């Protein structure tokens, strides 16, 4: 091979690279989400709750839920739908309120843990009472999403929970989610048409709408409040307004966590879609699908294949694939739908030529979201 055709190795100045590396504080995360503009499109995934049954113990089921939650957070998924791919039981046994459901109601168990992980840590004690499903919650990974703000971090949006301004014992919520004694009684008449919201800050937020206690709410602060020095007096309050949970994403472009929805069947994933007009783009995954590489990332006019979608959903099957979900779905059977690929706009295989006989659903979620990212993000 002649010198002119040989590859040239890229040389980097050792002095410049050493200098830049020395200035990086690797003890703290540097990949902080930075929104650029509002985002109206959404990304959803759907998978069967039966995948929980594939894990043998309570501990392993919890770990599986954590793996899925990490994928949702890393790839900015806005909604996860957990559907049933099992026949509808004739009799559903009634369980105690705090009973473990990992074996009897795997979809409910998965939804419970995913909702717990999506909730900012400072709100979990208020919104999630002790439950057998959460026995191993301490082993779950941190998601550290943009709305999981620390007390010293400022953002014009925050998640909070409505709290009682005063109780018979004269106590209220403190900044650590515990109780502290108030120095003066509250003016109940003033708060009659307002709600007090704990958002993880030293100050409570007051919103001009009455919301039931212990309700999660998204609030928006006056941007000017972020420029003031933090107040240490917890009796002080911040003015705020309640906004839709989608407001941080639609107005400012923040990734604001994922919504969790249960569906009784595969068809219910679509018929109960919360978005106006439903999902305008759907992708089913299967080892019998077309290779992901067959979907050309760019069209002839330079646009991405998925350009212009509003609400995209990617659907995964369980151990027996999406074929099983179609077979037990009464509505799909009524419409003579036999082949699951007829349910979706695209039917893809995320890992052609796989070395293992099976790919677990939690693995397929990571593969699909990574492989489809250029299409989704328009890169």
Structural description of this entry:
The protein has 379 residues and is α/β, with parallel strands linked by helices. It is built from ten helices and 13 strands. Strands 10-2-1-12-11-13 form a six-stranded parallel beta sheet. It has a five-stranded mixed β-barrel with strand order 3-6-7-9-8. A two-stranded antiparallel sheet has the order 4-5. Helix 2 packs parallel to helix 9 (361-371). The model is unreliable at 167-186 and 231-235 (pLDDT under 50).
Short account of what is shown:
The protein is α/β, with parallel strands linked by helices. The protein has helices spanning 14-22, 58-74, 106-118, 121-127, 247-252, 266-271, 322-327, 330-334, 361-371, 373-377; strands at residues 42-48, 79-83, 157-163, 171-173, 179-181, 195-198, 204-207, 216-221, 237-243, 259-263, 281-291, 311-315, 346-349.
